[in-house]
Design goal:
InterPro entries: Glycosyltransferase_2, Nucleotide-diphossugar_trans. The structure is a single chain. The chain is an alpha/beta fold and 355 residues long. The protein has a seven-stranded mixed β-sheet, with helices on both faces. Helices cover 49% and strands 11% of the residues. α8 packs across α10 and α10 packs across α12. 46% of the residues are buried. It starts with 5 loop residues before the first strand and ends in an 8-residue tail after the last helix.
């Protein structure tokens, strides 16, 4: 019997400062001369690829440069390579990580080898971060599919050969607008929700936040690429007959003081996004998420439903950042868990209740 091998995909764009450390940590985790580490790069210059090439590695390294820009496009281009499609498990790691840890990557690979279709990192996020995850992605995936994944958009994950092949086939069949979203930041939700149709999803719990580049300035792009995928795949896929019975929902918020100037900058940025976001109606959160999901379930294009949700989401993030500054860590986690439970009840009413 041929020994099973692993591979890794490192998607990057202008990550010269961190790519070598991530590559080295991934190589240490795989610890196999037969493994392949594939760098899928769409950088503006050669520096990132050069730093990847220069990093020492026991595994064989393959560099793909000049790829179509977009995290999803890079990952899918790599997935079509024989070096990746023949591996029994594929590790995908964020290349902007400033504290890459081989033990985390090793644990992800191990969980897939033990039977998961995907294993995804579950690290605590600072309370002012992860807004798309905490307010939309996690509660929506949980309510609509029964899979409560604490960090569904985490960039560090391992996926089985079968699940990655299923994702590649599904991506090729997507209509143009959704395909464009999956080629971008929609890839994380797409891989997770496709893998969930193949086998169990597992999480590797970590105690420390990951240090990486902030995503807040790119919030509009991330939202309008990730949310249509989330809405489409949760609204058109199969739903659980009953809500998941896994006990109380637990959110983790790593505490930190938010300097007044940073809070003011974030709120000003949100206001600039809202200037062209369309009409906002004061519906209590998370009712707008449920409305968007129902719209897609009734035939509204997912991108249109996401566009209608956008101003409500901006309002929610503004409220969260404003109220969160005065709240304790325990209060923040309770607020997130309460909104999560409200969406669960809204989408899947308890037995005997009217919907």
């Amino acid at each position: 019997m041929t020994p099973k091998t692993a591979a890794a995909i490192l998607p990057s764009r202008n990550e010269a400062a961190t790519i070598a450390a991530v590559s080295t940590a991934v190589d240490a985790a795989l610890d196999d001369a037969r493994a392949v580490v594939l760098h899928a790069d769409s950088s503006d210059g050669p520096d990132t690829a050069e730093h990847f090439t220069a990093a020492r590695s026991r595994a064989r390294k393959v560099g793909l440069t000049g790829l179509q820009r977009g995290k999803g496009a890079q990952i899918l281009a790599a997935a079509r390579r024989a070096e990746i499609s023949e591996a029994d498990v594929v590790l995908i790691a964020d290349t902007d990580t400033r504290n890459p840890d081989p033990t985390i990557y090793r644990a992800l690979v191990s969980r897939v080898r033990r039977g998961a279709s995907m294993a995804i990192a579950d690290y605590p996020r600072h309370w002012d971060e992860a807004n798309l995850t905490n307010h939309v992605a996690r509660p929506l995936i949980s309510a609509a599919t029964g899979h409560d994944v604490p960090q569904p958009l985490a960039g560090d994950l391992a996926i089985s050969r079968e699940a990655l092949a299923a994702a590649a086939r599904a991506a090729a069949a997507l209509p143009g607008e959704l395909a464009a979203c999956v080629n971008g930041y929609g890839i994380d939700a797409f891989l997770l929700l496709t893998a969930a149709t193949v086998g169990p999803i597992d999480s590797v719990r970590l105690d420390e936040p990951k240090r990486h580049a902030g995503s807040f300035p790119h919030l509009p792009v991330i939202f309008h690429q990730a949310v249509p995928v989330l809405l489409h795949m949760t609204a058109t896929g199969s739903r659980p007959i009953t809500p998941p019975d896994s006990g109380p929902v637990v959110y983790r918020c790593a505490d930190r003081a938010l300097p007044p100037h940073r809070a003011e900058t974030m709120l000003t940025t949100l206001d600039s996004f809202a200037a062209s976001s369309g009409r906002y109606d004061d519906w209590p959160w998370p009712l707008p998420v449920a409305n968007a999901w129902r719209a897609v379930n009734s035939g509204t294009p997912a991108a249109d439903a996401a566009h209608q949700l956008w101003p409500h989401y901006l309002h929610r993030v503004r409220d969260w950042l404003t109220s969160g500054q005065q709240a304790t860590t325990r209060q923040r986690t309770r607020m997130l868990a309460a909104a999560h439970a409200r969406l669960q009840i809204t989408l899947i009413p308890p037995a005997g209740a009217s919907s």
